[in-house]
Amino acid sequence: MLTQTDHPQLLPATKERSAQIAFLQGERKGQENLKKDLVRRIKMLEYALKQERAKFHKLKYGTELNQGDVKPPSYDSGKCPSRAPLCSDRPFHVRKVHV
Questions:
Q1: How many alpha carbons lie under 13 Å from residue 43 in its C-beta half-sphere?
Q2: 27 Cα distance to chain centroid
Q3: How far is residue 66's CA from residue 72's CA, in Å, rounded to a whole number?
Q4: Which parts of the sequence belong to the Striatin N-terminal domain (predicted)?
Q5: What is the pLDDT along the chain (99 residues), one digit of tens a residue?
Q6: How far apart are CA 2 and CA 67, in angstroms?
Q7: Nearest 10 degrees: Cα torsion 74, 76, 78, 79
Q8: Residue 62: left (phi > 0), alpha (psi -120 to 50), or beta?
Q9: What is the 3-state secondary structure (H, E, C) of the chain?
Q10: What is the maximal distance between C-alpha atoms in the chain?
Q11: How far is Cα 29 from Cα 59, in angstroms, rounded to an integer?
């Protein structure tokens, strides 16, 4: 049990801990905002890549590439699948160009 003599000594420690908690909560919020921004950018790049693939396919083969519903990503979805594959519909392949 705490006595009245112990209480003044604990007050600065409590304030320190409260300040540290507030700082760490701010750090976490910043990290969450950074993650949301990066996920938004990834979605934008995936969408642009799908458009480029469709454009290339049309120029090369003269037909539309059937990609299902290719629509711009919603950036405000609020959901972020942590382990969702990127560009899962078609893997990226690098072709060697002979000069």
A1: 18
A2: 16
A3: 16
A4: 18-75
A5: 555 555 666 788 899 999 999 999 999 999 999 999 999 999 999 999 999 999 999 999 998 888 776 677 776 655 544 444 444 444 445 455 454
A6: 69
A7: 10
A8: left
A9: CCCCCCHHHHHHHHHHHHHHHHHHHHHHHHHHHHHHHHHHHHHHHHHHHHHHHHHHHHHHHCCCCCCCCCCCCCCCCCCCCCCCCCCCCCCCCCCCCCC
A10: 86
A11: 45
- The single-letter code of the amino acid at 19 is A
Q: How far apart are alpha carbons 67 and 47 in whole angstroms?
A: 11
| Structure token pair of residue 39 | 């996920």
Residue type, 71: K
What is the C-alpha end-to-end distance of the chain, expressed in Å? Answer: 83
